[in-house]
Design a protein that fits this description.
Number of domains: 1
CATH architecture: 3-Layer(aba) Sandwich
Order of helices and strands: EHHEHHEHEHEHHH
Organism: Thiohalocapsa halophila
Strand content: 5-15%
Protein name: DUF3368 domain-containing protein
Pfam family, one: DUF3368
InterPro entries: PIN-like_prokaryotic (IPR021799)
């Protein structure tokens, strides 16, 4: 198991929309995010997802990783994705990155990093008995205008036997 779990903005936003942020704590304990990701998910607009993410930070299971290396250069990524990858590359122990964006995932893989997305977290939550149905969560997520590739959803549902 990864000693350090880092998240980009997308999994936090998606999971908050289905009341699933608590699954991260149950599955991984502490989850870290770079300051840039914190700023992205907490823009100060007063939305429900912001309140849920702020509650995770206040509870201490969601933490900001303030030491963000400046290398390697990752010009094709947004700053949140780049910061996640830079932090993970600098770690001596295995890390897990939670990231949905295809380009970020591909670049993380090029650096030998393990990556999982929102769909995988939902699948893990189902496998660990945290939710009764992954399919139901995907329906709710889709209704919130959060999009995942249908092939990814099908693969997760197949893996969890739904």
């Amino acid at each position: 198991m990864a000693r350090l779990v880092l998240t980009d903005a997308s999994p936090l936003i998606g999971l908050s929309r289905v009341d699933g942020l608590g699954w991260l704590e149950s599955l991984f304990g502490v989850v870290w995010l770079p300051p840039r990701v914190r700023d992205e998910v907490l823009p100060g607009l007063g939305r429900d997802d912001e309140r849920m993410i702020a509650a995770g930070l206040n509870a201490g299971w969601l933490k900001v990783h303030t030491e963000v290396p400046t290398a390697p250069p990752l010009p094709d990524l947004d700053e949140g994705e780049a910061a996640c990858i830079r932090i993970a590359v600098a770690q001596p122990e295995p890390c897990l990155l939670l990231m949905d964006e295809r380009t970020g995932r591909a670049i993380a893989a090029e650096h030998g990093l393990r990556v999982a997305g929102t769909a995988a977290v939902i699948g893990l939550a189902r496998q660990r008995g945290l939710i009764p149905s992954a399919r139901e969560v995907f329906v709710r997520l889709h209704a919130s205008d959060f999009r995942l590739a249908p092939t990814v959803i099908k693969a997760v549902l197949r893996r969890v036997g739904e």
